[in-house]
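> run fold Amidohydrolase family protein
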Amino acid sequence: MTTVILANARLIDPERDEVRPGGLRIEDGRIAALIDGTDIPDGAMDCGGQFLAPGIVDLGVKVSEPGERHKESFASAGRAAAAGGVTTMITRPDTTPAIDTPETLEFVERRASADSIVRVLPMAALTKGREGREMTEIGFLLDAGAVAFSDCDRVVENTKVYSRALTYARALGALVVAHVQEPILSAGACATSGKFASLRGLSGVTPMAERMELDRQIALAEMTGARLHIDQLTTARALPALERAKRNGLDITAGVSIHHLTLNELDVADYRTFFKVKPPLRHEDDRLAVVEAVASGLIDVICSMHTPQDEESKRLPFEEAASGAVGLETLLPAALRLYHSGHLSMPGLFRALSLNPSKRLALDSGRLSEGAPADLVLFDPDAPFIMDRFALLSKSKNTPFDGARMQGRVRGTWVGGRQVHG
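> ok
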């Protein structure tokens, strides 16, 4: 049995909603005991008064295996995740080919187990080929290790097919992850409609496209009783519908990407394609409303929505460029902007980054309690740096934070009690 002691830290406990001085004793990969105060026992690692928190559980990471390994592999994504304090990646099935069969899922699990230094839990596609015509073998995929089902940014337009898939998922207790952008209105759009998009000559989509699809998803969840997680909720107009659905007892949670929490449409500036994401960046009023929704608990999860793209797919005119941004290494320092601005407390931040995604997926991570896995991140929230995209460990370098002044350095990451970074 291996014993590791981390002492003289500031423990962030999202379950108790508190920060307190202390440390942890780790045995056999799990937290064996909590240590109070700032004493440093013999043989302990001195954390120097820095913050020690549950490792981040990132719900919605794209690793480009199979099919596009040049963009991101499990090895490179694992290193990037560890450097960013992410100890569990919940990976998306929007690969080439899609992860829609037990055989493809087993391939992903083998590669992840062999190559990634952090935990990897895969999602599977809800319909075959993510084409929205025929549902996948949800039961077999669950048995093979799928933790949730999603067609990612391809909305299942056929309501009959979708309702059948949701009904089947409910019968098996499976979680469905939905993308709420009305597909016809959103087709071809690369910006949020309004003055900025008009001045730049960019094709826009109304924020109501999100509200319309959310209303449809809520109605189907009510009809089928399915467990539903909205991957990204980004507009103020959608929030009242989510609040009503939760108040009415529907099993619905929602997330938001760190880019929509910390950036707005004006950051696109002179057609900077690293800021082209899906859904598009929103108005500042929307951003502030969504930040408040995270603070209040209405939105449950903050994720990176890590989407690697190569240089060739980004060095195109804005409307033709691929959507998406990498985020594994920038998730924590970007999220700390919300802490430094006073919008979120440290426990509140890690409730959205670690505890809530763990709860939604029925994982025992995301906690600082005896018996929990020793998946941990040690960080200095005040350490300043200038983001250099070429220093990122991801294979792809498409970060919107390139050249930005940021605060927050990860000093150590542990997965199952084993230090994988720092």
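The longest helix spans residues 208-224.
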